[in-house]
Amino acid sequence: MSRLDSMLRRLTAQRDGLNWAAEQISTMDGDVLDMGLGNGRTYDHLREVLADRRIWVIDRVLQCHPACVPPEQDFLQGEAQPMLEKLAAEGHRIALAHYDFGFGVKERDVAEAAALSPAIAQVMAPGGIIVSGQPLAGFEELDGPAGIPLGRYMFYRAG
After folding, report:
1. Which of 38, 71, 116, 145 is the most buried (most CB within 10 A)?
2. Which residues of 56-94 are buried (b: 16+ CB within 10 A; e: fewer)?
3. Is the pLDDT of residue 103 over 80?
4. Taking the model in full, what pTM does it have?
Protein backbone atom coordinates (compact mmCIF):
# COMPACT_ATOMS: atom_id res chain seq x y z
CA MET A 1 0.00 0.00 0.00
CA SER A 2 1.39 3.41 -0.91
CA ARG A 3 2.00 5.98 1.80
CA LEU A 4 -0.71 8.15 0.23
CA ASP A 5 -3.25 5.33 0.39
CA SER A 6 -2.21 4.57 3.96
CA MET A 7 -2.64 8.22 4.97
CA LEU A 8 -6.06 8.43 3.32
CA ARG A 9 -7.13 5.26 5.11
CA ARG A 10 -5.90 6.64 8.44
CA LEU A 11 -7.65 10.00 8.01
CA THR A 12 -10.90 8.34 6.93
CA ALA A 13 -10.76 6.03 9.95
CA GLN A 14 -10.08 9.01 12.22
CA ARG A 15 -13.00 11.02 10.84
CA ASP A 16 -15.40 8.08 10.93
CA GLY A 17 -14.28 7.18 14.45
CA LEU A 18 -14.76 10.72 15.73
CA ASN A 19 -18.21 10.95 14.15
CA TRP A 20 -19.15 7.61 15.72
CA ALA A 21 -17.84 8.73 19.12
CA ALA A 22 -19.78 12.00 18.89
CA GLU A 23 -22.97 9.98 18.41
CA GLN A 24 -22.08 7.75 21.37
CA ILE A 25 -21.84 10.72 23.75
CA SER A 26 -24.85 12.62 22.41
CA THR A 27 -26.81 12.19 25.66
CA MET A 28 -23.83 12.61 28.03
CA ASP A 29 -22.70 15.73 29.82
CA GLY A 30 -19.07 16.71 29.54
CA ASP A 31 -16.46 18.50 27.52
CA VAL A 32 -14.27 17.32 24.65
CA LEU A 33 -10.48 16.97 24.76
CA ASP A 34 -8.11 16.94 21.79
CA MET A 35 -4.70 15.69 22.88
CA GLY A 36 -2.24 16.70 20.21
CA LEU A 37 -3.33 19.72 18.17
CA GLY A 38 -0.75 19.43 15.41
CA ASN A 39 -2.02 21.20 12.28
CA GLY A 40 -5.50 21.52 13.81
CA ARG A 41 -7.49 19.35 11.38
CA THR A 42 -8.97 17.16 14.10
CA TYR A 43 -9.76 20.13 16.32
CA ASP A 44 -11.47 21.84 13.39
CA HIS A 45 -13.58 18.73 12.78
CA LEU A 46 -14.48 18.38 16.45
CA ARG A 47 -15.64 21.99 16.72
CA GLU A 48 -17.86 21.45 13.69
CA VAL A 49 -19.34 18.14 14.85
CA LEU A 50 -19.59 19.10 18.55
CA ALA A 51 -20.20 22.84 18.29
CA ASP A 52 -22.23 22.87 21.52
CA ARG A 53 -19.37 21.47 23.64
CA ARG A 54 -16.31 23.08 25.15
CA ILE A 55 -13.25 21.64 23.45
CA TRP A 56 -10.02 21.58 25.42
CA VAL A 57 -6.75 21.20 23.54
CA ILE A 58 -3.39 20.06 24.89
CA ASP A 59 -0.14 20.34 22.95
CA ARG A 60 3.50 21.13 23.60
CA VAL A 61 3.50 24.00 21.10
CA LEU A 62 0.92 26.01 19.21
CA GLN A 63 1.80 25.59 15.54
CA CYS A 64 -1.50 24.85 13.83
CA HIS A 65 -3.11 26.39 10.78
CA PRO A 66 -4.28 29.95 11.64
CA ALA A 67 -7.93 28.98 11.06
CA CYS A 68 -7.64 26.25 13.70
CA VAL A 69 -6.27 28.13 16.70
CA PRO A 70 -8.38 27.28 19.77
CA PRO A 71 -9.52 30.02 22.15
CA GLU A 72 -6.71 30.93 24.54
CA GLN A 73 -8.70 29.79 27.60
CA ASP A 74 -9.18 26.32 26.09
CA PHE A 75 -5.58 25.73 24.95
CA LEU A 76 -3.32 24.07 27.52
CA GLN A 77 0.26 24.41 26.33
CA GLY A 78 2.87 22.15 27.81
CA GLU A 79 3.54 18.54 28.64
CA ALA A 80 0.46 16.34 28.79
CA GLN A 81 0.78 14.99 32.34
CA PRO A 82 0.60 18.36 34.15
CA MET A 83 -2.09 19.65 31.75
CA LEU A 84 -4.27 16.57 32.42
CA GLU A 85 -3.67 17.00 36.16
CA LYS A 86 -4.77 20.66 35.86
CA LEU A 87 -8.02 19.65 34.13
CA ALA A 88 -8.70 17.01 36.78
CA ALA A 89 -7.92 19.38 39.67
CA GLU A 90 -10.33 21.95 38.23
CA GLY A 91 -13.06 19.29 38.09
CA HIS A 92 -13.53 19.20 34.32
CA ARG A 93 -15.10 16.00 32.99
CA ILE A 94 -14.44 14.83 29.46
CA ALA A 95 -17.14 12.97 27.52
CA LEU A 96 -15.03 12.48 24.38
CA ALA A 97 -11.26 12.51 24.12
CA HIS A 98 -9.06 12.16 21.06
CA TYR A 99 -5.51 10.96 21.73
CA ASP A 100 -2.96 11.86 19.06
CA PHE A 101 0.31 12.52 20.86
CA GLY A 102 3.42 11.08 19.34
CA PHE A 103 7.07 11.44 18.55
CA GLY A 104 6.90 9.31 15.40
CA VAL A 105 8.76 6.40 16.99
CA LYS A 106 6.29 3.56 17.61
CA GLU A 107 7.89 2.15 20.77
CA ARG A 108 8.19 5.61 22.32
CA ASP A 109 4.63 6.55 21.31
CA VAL A 110 3.17 3.35 22.80
CA ALA A 111 5.12 3.85 26.05
CA GLU A 112 3.93 7.47 26.36
CA ALA A 113 0.29 6.45 25.78
CA ALA A 114 0.52 3.78 28.47
CA ALA A 115 2.18 6.20 30.91
CA LEU A 116 -0.49 8.89 30.33
CA SER A 117 -3.45 6.49 30.57
CA PRO A 118 -4.00 6.95 34.35
CA ALA A 119 -4.02 10.75 33.98
CA ILE A 120 -6.47 10.50 31.08
CA ALA A 121 -8.69 8.27 33.22
CA GLN A 122 -8.78 10.99 35.91
CA VAL A 123 -10.43 13.52 33.55
CA MET A 124 -12.86 11.20 31.79
CA ALA A 125 -16.55 11.21 32.63
CA PRO A 126 -17.87 7.73 33.45
CA GLY A 127 -18.84 6.13 30.15
CA GLY A 128 -16.87 8.69 28.14
CA ILE A 129 -15.34 7.63 24.83
CA ILE A 130 -11.68 7.85 23.84
CA VAL A 131 -10.58 7.67 20.21
CA SER A 132 -6.88 6.92 20.02
CA GLY A 133 -4.14 6.33 17.50
CA GLN A 134 -2.13 4.51 20.19
CA PRO A 135 -3.09 1.70 22.56
CA LEU A 136 -4.17 2.97 25.99
CA ALA A 137 -4.25 1.03 29.27
CA GLY A 138 -6.99 0.65 31.87
CA PHE A 139 -10.02 1.34 29.68
CA GLU A 140 -12.71 -0.91 28.21
CA GLU A 141 -11.79 -1.50 24.57
CA LEU A 142 -14.68 -1.05 22.12
CA ASP A 143 -15.18 -2.29 18.59
CA GLY A 144 -15.87 1.21 17.26
CA PRO A 145 -17.59 1.81 13.94
CA ALA A 146 -17.75 -0.81 11.20
CA GLY A 147 -15.25 -0.56 8.40
CA ILE A 148 -12.21 0.59 10.36
CA PRO A 149 -9.42 -1.98 10.08
CA LEU A 150 -8.32 -3.55 13.38
CA GLY A 151 -5.49 -1.54 14.92
CA ARG A 152 -5.91 1.48 12.62
CA TYR A 153 -7.66 3.38 15.41
CA MET A 154 -8.58 2.26 18.90
CA PHE A 155 -11.78 3.02 20.79
CA TYR A 156 -12.24 2.92 24.55
CA ARG A 157 -14.90 3.59 27.18
CA ALA A 158 -13.91 5.12 30.51
CA GLY A 159 -15.08 3.39 33.68
Report:
1. 116
2. bbbbeeeebeeebebeeebbbeeebeebbeebbeeebbb
3. no
4. 0.95
